[in-house]
Amino acid sequence: MEKIGVVGLGIMGAGIVEVFAKSGYSVVGVAESDAAVSLGQSNLAKSLSRAVSRGKLTDEESSGITSLVTWGTDFSLMSDCDLVVEAAPEIMSLKAKIFSELDSCVKSSAILATNTSSLSVTSIAEVTSRRSHVIGLHFFNPAPVQKFVEVISTEFSDSDVVKKVVDLARGLGKEPAQIADQPGFIVNKLLLRYLNHAVRLIDDGISTRDIIDSAMREIAHFPMGPLELLDLIGLDTSVEVLNTIYDDTGIDTDGPASGLTARVNIGELGRKSGEGFYTYAQPHEPATSQDDEGKQRVYVELINAYLASACEMRDSGYATEHDINQGMKLGCGLPEGPFETIARVGSDQLPLN
Ligand code: NAD
Questions:
Q1: Whose CA is nearest to atom 28 of ligand 1?
Q2: CA 53 to chain centre
Q3: What's the mean pLDDT in 11-32?
Q4: Which of 29, 44, 68, 139 is most buried (most C-beta within 10 Å)?
Q5: In this predicted model, what pLDDT tens digit does every residue of 63-116 receive, in sequence order?
């Protein structure tokens, strides 16, 4: 593969452009308007200048990366691409429209990939005339930093196409896990269930924001508390992903907690709207709590459910222990994978109490 197209140049698309250009590919970045293209260009420029100021890239390397990228609003710019990665908003009708358009204007041998977090890759493939060449290629945020990627195949996928994309991801310095098309894939399914559970503890009056966030930072050593993390991901996005998981599993606790939907209904979407579980008008310190007993209770409740969910995923045959561990470490930045936690505490000690 030589030439890569990227559709959608927001947080993820601009990062994906950077990942490919850094590995020496020619990249075409396409968005729906000149303003959206400019935003993508400035996202890339900011990220490269941060890397230069931290001594991770030289000025020459940064200019070399920039010179590999061309930009525009016309899908025909991608007609000779070997792979196109779509990173448009998480809306099925929009992705369907984009894939149908890509199918008609990108050469027939090209692979079309979606960066969707939770939508059905199978349904996206079905709108094209090249279902065997449509795949999920799910990067994590920020794409240039997070090492894990999920390569999602469908019942239609050509095994050579899957292999090519897995090899390509390795060549980009990523660690790919090859999995089937299921809502939430590995990482989002485990992560969003855990985050949703944390909100339910507040909804049910069992705990508070500060106790929960400090419990998971201080006792589990997670880099962020679950409520801080929900604000970062976006409460609207989290609700969308949970709805998709719930539609698949039908398990009541997979449905978005009322503390999430209520906030989304009044426009409190987390950091991006300035208000969520926290308020972002002023910089704030992470929450802390001195309630050691309360923190221990929350930790035990959340970690037991998270580990049980990881075991259920492994036992269903959907993903291996290795891929689940790597996903939670390299995709979410957790200090250890769930099966490493189980090995450390001893499986005979579970559930913790
Ligand atoms: P975003 O809203 O930041 O960016 C979306 C981009 O798509 C914008 O540049 C927008 O201008 C562009 N766009 C909108 N309509 C378009 C069209 N018709 N044609 C071309 N471009 C169009 O979204 P994001 O957070 O970058 O997410 C993009 C995708 O990546 C989603 O599917 C999301 O679920 C997935 N994802 C997001 C994250 C994350 O943490 N944000 C992580 C992994 C995967």
A1: 87
A2: 27
A3: 97
A4: 29
A5: 999 999 999 999 999 999 999 999 999 889 999 999 999 999 999 999 999 999
Rounded CA separation 37/304 (Å):
45
Which of the residues 117, 207, 214, 238 is marked catalytic?
117
CB atoms under 10 Å from CB of 180, counted, come to 16
Q: Could you tell me which CATH class the domain 3-180 is placed in?
A: alpha beta
d(CA 32, CA 253): 37
**Ligand 1 center from residue 325 Cα (angstroms):** 26
Q: Among this protein's residues, is 43 annotated catalytic? A: no
Cα 158 to chain centroid distance, Å, stands at 24
Q: Is 126 a catalytic residue?
A: no
Q: State if residue 98 touches ligand 1 by the CB under 6 angstroms criterion.
A: yes
Ligand 1 contacts CB of residue 146 (under 6 A): no
Q: Which of 11, 101, 124 to mutate to test the pocket of ligand 1 (most atoms within 8 A of CB)?
A: 11
Ligand 1 pocket mutation pick from 7, 12, 105, 332 by most atoms within 8 angstroms of CB: 12
End-to-end CA distance of the chain: 52
Same fold for the pair 3-180 and 187-348: no
49, amino acid identity = S
Give the whole-angstrom CA distance, residue 195 versus residue 197.
Answer: 5
Q: At what angle do helices 59-67 and 34-53 cross, to 10 degrees?
A: 160
pLDDT of 283 over the 80 cut: no
What fold, for 187-348? Answer: N-(1-d-carboxylethyl)-l-norvaline Dehydrogenase; domain 2 (1.10.1040)
Task: From residue 236, give the alpha-carbon distance in Å to each of 117, 193, 203, 272, 273.
Answer: 13, 15, 18, 10, 11
Domain borders along the chain are 3-180, 187-348
Is the pLDDT confidence value at 249 over 80? yes
Give me ligand 1 centre to Cα 249, in Å.
26
Please name the residue ranges forming H helices in 54-76.
59-67
Spatial contact of 70 and 40, defined as CB atoms under 8 Å apart = no
**Residue 284 a catalytic site member:** no
Mean of the pLDDT values across residues 191-199? 98
